[in-house]
Amino acid sequence: MKEHTDKNFENRLTAIRDQLSEMSAVVEKQLSLALNCIKSKDSDYSITIQNLDLQVDDFEKAVRDECFEVLTLHRPVASDLRLVFTALKVSKEMERIGDHCRGLSNKAITSKSDLDPEIIEALSALGRSVLSVVHEVFDSLFTGNIEKAKESWRRDLEIDKLYKSILKTLIDKMEKNDSIIETGTQHILIAKSLERIGDHAGNIAEEVIFNISGQYQDIEKIRV
Amino acid sequence: MVDNNNFALKTNNVYVHYGNKMAINNVALDFPKNEVTSLIGPSGCGKSTFLRCLNRMNDVIDSCKVEGSFIMNNTIDIYRDDLPIENLREKIGMVFQKPNPFPKSIYENVAYGPKIHGVTSSQSELDDLVKESLHRAGLYDEVKDRLTDVATGLSGGQQQRLCIARAISIKPEIILMDEPCSALDPIATAKIEDLINELKENYTIIIVTHSMSQASRVSTKTAFFHLGNLIEEGDTSKIFTKPDKEQTNDYITGRFG
Ligand SMILES: Nc1ncnc2c1ncn2[C@@H]1O[C@H](COP(=O)(O)OP(=O)(O)OP(=O)(O)O)[C@@H](O)[C@H]1O
Ligand SMILES: [Mg+2]
Asked: How many CA atoms, within 13 angstroms, populate the side-chain half-sphere of residue A98?
C-alpha cells in the first residue's frame, strides 16, 4: 500500500498502529507475569501487573481519542476505516485482558494454601496455551496474517478443553475434601479468568479477520 | 442469475479515441435500473468521455471515435444509424458541471424540452408539467412567484436544480450528471444529493464525481476508472469498505503517491 498524500493523516494512522502495538506488548507482559504468580505467589509480580494496567488503560484512552480525531477530521474509508474500527474494538479487548490478568494475579497470591502440584501444573499449562494464543493473535494483527488469526481462533477449543478438565478435577477434589473448598474455588476463578482471556483473544481474531478481509466470519465456518 | 431486465443500460467492449490517443480502453459496465451509479477516478481518466458516450455527446467531436456496444433496456442499440439523436436525448438526459440555463425565463427553461419533443398537447398541460418538474427538482417553492424572471438571475445551486428540472421535464429514463455539485456550496450540494435520492425512484442516474463522500452518499454502485481503464466496479458499500483492488483502495483513501 502507498503512503497517504496527506502526511498528517498518514502520521495519525501510524500513531494508532504504534499505540496498539505497544499496548499489545504491555498486555502480553501482564499475562506472562500473571502466569508467574500462579506458580510462585510472588506479590512483586502482582504489583508490577497493577502498574502495567495503568499503562494499558492510558493506551486504550489514547487509541480511542486518536481514532475519534481521525474519524472526525479525516473521514477514513476502506482500509483506513477498517484500521480505525479494528483499533477501537481490539484496544477494548486488550484492556479487558489486562483486567483479567490483574484479577487472577490477585487471586493467585492471596489464595490461602497451596494446592497440589498437579493442579498448579494444569493451570500453568492452560496459562501457557492462553499466552501462546494471545501472542499468535497479536502477531496476526500486526503482520496482517489472516490464516494465523483463524488458527488462533480455532485454538479456543484447546483452551476450553483444558479449562473444563481443570474444573472437573477441582470439583472432584473438593467433593472429597471440603477443607480445600476455599482454595479450590479461588483456583476455579483463576482458571475461569484464563478461559475468559482466551475468549477475548478470539474476539480479537474476529476483528483481525474483518480488518484484513472486510468481512466478519463465523467461528463455525473457520473451524471446518 | 442476474435479471437482465434490471439494467437500464449495458455497455461492452467500449473503446474511445481522440485522434490516435486512447481515452477509454475496453470498458464494460452495466447500469442497474432505478439506481445511482457513480463514476470516480483521477482527472483525465476518462469519466466524462465515457459518460458522454452514453448519450452520444461525443458525436459532435470530430476527432472522437467511439467503438463498442451500448444497449438500452436490452433492446435499443443507442448507436444504431437510424436512431434519431433527439429520440435518444429524450430518453437519456444530461446535467453538466456548470449550470447552463438558457438566457430565458425560468418557465421557458423547463418548457423548452417538452415543447420541442411534443411531450404535452395543451398549454395547461405544459404549465402543469413545468410546475411538476420544478417541484420534483425541489425548486418550485423558491421560484413560484417569479417564473417569468430570467433564469440566469438564480443562484448557482438554484440554476443547477433548474437544469435538473429541465432534464426531467422530458421524462427521460436515464439522467447523466457530470460533477453536478462541483460549483455548489454544501447546502446546495445537500439539496441536489437529496434530490438524486428521490429521483432514483423513477430514473436511472449515472453521476461523475470527484467527491468520494458524495459517491458514497448518493450511489449504490461505484465504478473506478484509471487511465481509461475500468479498474473496479461494485456495490458502493463494498468499494468503500474493502475494494478488491489495491489501486482502488489507494485512490479512495487518498494515497495518490
Ligand atoms: N475533446 C477532446 N479532444 C482531445 N482529447 C480529449 C478531449 N476530451 C478529453 N480528452 C482527453 O481524454 C482523456 C480523458 O478525458 P476526460 O475529460 O474524459 O477525463 P475526466 O476523467 O472527465 O477528467 P476530469 O476529472 O478532469 O473531468 C484526457 O486525457 C483528455 O485530455
Ligand atoms: Mg470530466
From this structure: 25
